[in-house]
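Notes from the 1:1 (GR / supervisor)

We went over the backlog. Supervisor wanted to see one worked example end to end before approving the batch request, so GR pasted a single chain during the call. The sequence is below; no edits were made to it. Supervisor asked that the structure be written out right there so they could see what the output format looks like.
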Amino acid sequence: MITEKELLTLCGQVGRVLLTSGAETSRVETTVEYIGKAAGFTVTCHATMTAILISEDLNNRVHIVKIRGNQFNLQKLDEINHLSRQFTEGRLSFAELQGEVNRIDQKVIDFKWPEKILSAGLVSVAPMMLFKASWSDLAWAFLVGICGYLIAQWAFYKVQGAYAAPALGGLTVGFLAGLLFALHLGQNADHIAVSALMPLVPGVAMTNSFREIIGRDTISGLVRAVDAVVTAGAIGGGVIIGHFLAQLLTL
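Structure output shown during the call:
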């Protein structure tokens, strides 16, 4: 027998995992309401970027989940979606759903550092193809992109402030690109910097903001868009400061 408390607690956990993993608010609301319907309850869900409100309509019970932090993890999102579909189709019991959601929530899903470093370098190289850059600039973009990514990752865990990590990553990229050009090791500092910034660009946040606005979730879409714009501004500001520092050191 599924109790209201168990259902609301599980729905809140599912919504939190989805939202913090990069899901748009409409997906969170739909998934939670489908789970409630499959469990035999009429559930209403309203999700924002900072909180999820879930109510059971029969007895007017409300469950509120505060959202803190936001680390995109599309693998968790995919696994939760798969579980919800299995449950709504009757291929998974409520107890099994609870166990699997707890496992996903507690599981640290991440790539190994060598894989992340190599991926950052390859992402940094791709735009250089559009610029028809020289082989030397392409190699420098690969290395500078890795350096910027590593600094941003270090700052994410060590430096307080929501936008310190992208700002420091951008500063590293701008400084190294300007230094390479000043030392006549790189041919075009702008191309190197623009390419090396690719691992730092908030692409998922920007995509989700457009999807939410198109889906008429205007408030959440605008919040995501503002966050993405501020992040991009922090990266750009870091690049400018880094480039200026490189010029000062090489006068």
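Supervisor's comment: The chain has two domains: 4-106, 113-249.
Batch request approved.
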